[in-house]
Recover the amino acids of this structure.
């Protein structure tokens, strides 16, 4: 168990963890201490900091501080759900491809190539055009963008393990494919597969936030950091805090997750980490 | 040749996916134009006008044929006004604007990335290297719109130097307003530059460790000459692929950057089209951007083969 937490002792890992804790505290506990309701106007639109409104008001006169305190949950929840789904879909496809070889493998991996040959945002925008704007579509889209990347890693790891003696022994015992995958393969590929889970999550945050910023994800009046930046862009010179604070929070979150992810990937002994895209 | 053929096949598959993806839901563009309260007869008429009453496969082939001949069909926004607006007329200027933006960014990125990467590698482990490496890791992690928003805050809100909105009239070249290009280009540079710097650094460090560099040093050449003539030359070939990859990211990032700065390019056109569910236009713009993306990949592969003679026979 000690080995698992080794990343926390690298300088990058510990700074990352501290920053991450800070943003998580804001996002998770924020709603409990928010002074106002997130979607009720409390004053004149786009005024600067004042008594009772520490960060001023947004373009509809709502309290910026309260909206910011409420707006972190969606970022974390959507990106987290998307990453999880990407591992489920990509993991299943990758293991299937790596274990079965042959036609299934070929087809799946060509599919992965095609997915990787399109800019992820294009893929997401096309999906939104077809399926409409909603949180579910956003999660599904981001998961589908990431799944091929997961599938590739899982496939390689599965291929490596599937020729080992203990797998062949299990096959010789006549165990079913599902049992082999669960008992023999899964425990052995978990390390390399989840080494870059942190970086996947970081990329999910970028994608989720970008789509929300484009106005094609969560819809108003949702309080979401990216959406707050997007809808208040024209009010920038009247109340800069409405852009600055959520932008810094997303920035810190993204950098923190990347630092932690990078530290985990490094201590798990994978070189060349650091590029989530 | 085989790479090009593979690229065309990929593009075909992508086009089918784009087409299918945009038609997932039962509602269609005619419905989007007329709104929810449209009379059924009206809807049917517009549908016939837009060609939506034909089967999907037929429309797909028609669209594909149109792509090849440069006829992209008419945008739903035009139908909404009761007229016809060919998509090509709407996006031809935008394509130029986007290419200008991407090209300027790429032209800045390559030399800057090389210089920073090489400096960082030569000074590996020292303060300069740490500063460059840490800041590039931080910048890579950020979404483009965050980099852009922070740049706007600094250069517009605080310093008052640059405008946050690109005001470029239709038919005008963005190069006529160099000042308005600064922020979009800087934003676009952010992530791709940082990623390239890191990879140039890695390649250069490898090259500096090789025997021929040691040999050159031992034969008494000045360190400058060693770096320029021996290490850099050999680190360049892998860098080409890195640059191509990052110019690809740049093409992806252009969508967000154009939207952020209201820059009249393909990316903004695409976001606007998605927002009003202008299916035909989304399909066409998406496929144009995807084509550029795939073409870049092929060009990079060919360049690497040209630069590294060893690979020529293998390809």
């Amino acid at each position: 168990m000690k080995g698992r937490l080794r990343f926390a002792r690298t300088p990058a890992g510990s700074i990352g963890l501290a920053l991450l804790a800070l943003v998580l505290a804001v996002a998770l506990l924020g709603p409990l201490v928010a002074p106002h309701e997130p979607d009720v106007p409390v004053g004149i639109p786009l005024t600067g900091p004042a008594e009772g409104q520490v960060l001023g008001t947004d373009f509809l006169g709502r309290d910026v501080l309260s909206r910011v305190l409420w707006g972190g949950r969606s970022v974390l929840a959507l990106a987290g759900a998307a990453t999880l789904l990407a591992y489920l879909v990509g993991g299943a496809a990758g293991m299937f491809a790596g274990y079965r070889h042959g036609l299934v493998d070929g087809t799946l991996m060509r599919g992965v190539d095609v997915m990787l040959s399109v800019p992820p945002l294009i893929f997401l925008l096309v999906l939104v055009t077809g399926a409409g704007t909603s949180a579910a579509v956003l999660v599904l889209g981001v998961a589908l963008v990431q799944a091929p990347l997961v599938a590739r890693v899982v496939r390689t790891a599965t291929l490596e393990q599937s020729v080992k003696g203990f797998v062949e022994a299990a096959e010789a015992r006549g165990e079913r494919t599902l049992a082999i995958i669960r008992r023999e393969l899964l425990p052995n590929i978990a390390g390399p597969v989840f080494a870059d889970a942190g970086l996947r999550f970081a990329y999910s945050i970028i994608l989720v936030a970008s789509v929300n910023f484009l106005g094609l994800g969560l819809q108003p009046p949702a309080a979401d950091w990216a959406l707050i930046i997007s809808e208040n862009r024209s009010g920038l010179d009247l109340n800069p805090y409405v852009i600055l604070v959520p932008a810094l929070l997303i920035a810190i979150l993204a950098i923190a997750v990347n630092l932690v992810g990078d530290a985990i990937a490094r201590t798990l002994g994978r070189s060349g980490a650091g590029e989530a895209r | 040749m085989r790479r090009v053929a593979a690229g065309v096949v990929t593009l075909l598959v992508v086009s089918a996916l784009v087409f299918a993806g945009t038609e997932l839901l039962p509602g269609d563009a005619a419905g989007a134009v007329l709104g929810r309260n449209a009379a059924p007869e009206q809807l049917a008429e517009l549908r016939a006008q837009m060609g939506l009453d034909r089967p999907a496969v037929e429309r797909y082939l028609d669209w594909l044929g149109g792509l090849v001949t440069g006829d992209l069909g008419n945008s739903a926004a035009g139908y909404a006004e009761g007229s016809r607006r060919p998509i090509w007329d709407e996006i031809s200027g935008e394509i130029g604007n986007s290419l200008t933006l991407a090209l300027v960014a790429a032209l800045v990125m390559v030399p800057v990335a090389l210089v920073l990467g090489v400096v960082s590698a030569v000074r590996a482990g020292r303060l300069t290297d740490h500063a460059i490496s840490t800041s590039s890791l931080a910048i890579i992690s950020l979404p483009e719109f965050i980099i852009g928003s922070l740049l706007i805050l600094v250069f517009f809100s605080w310093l008052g130097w640059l405008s946050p909105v690109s005001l470029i009239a239709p038919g005008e070249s963005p190069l006529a307003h160099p000042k308005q290009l600064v922020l979009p280009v800087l934003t676009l540079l952010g992530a791709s530059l940082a990623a390239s710097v890191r990879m140039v650094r890695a390649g250069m460090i490898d090259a500096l460790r090789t025997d021929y560099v040691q040999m050159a040093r031992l034969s008494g050449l000045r360190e400058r000459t060693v770096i320029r003539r021996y290490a850099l030359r050999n680190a360049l070939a892998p860098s080409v692929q890195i640059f191509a990859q990052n110019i690809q990211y740049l093409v992806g990032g252009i969508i967000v950057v154009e939207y952020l700065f209201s820059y009249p390019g393909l990316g903004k056109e695409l976001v606007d089209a998605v927002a009003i569910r202008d299916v035909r236009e989304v399909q066409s713009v998406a496929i144009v951007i995807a084509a550029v993306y795939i073409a870049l990949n092929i060009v990079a592969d060919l360049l690497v083969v040209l630069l590294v003679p060893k690979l020529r026979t293998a390809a």
Notes: Chain B touches chain A through 52 residues (CB under 8 Å). Residues 223-260 of chain B form the longest helix (38 residues). The mean pLDDT of chain B is 77. Chain B is about 80% helix and 0% strand.
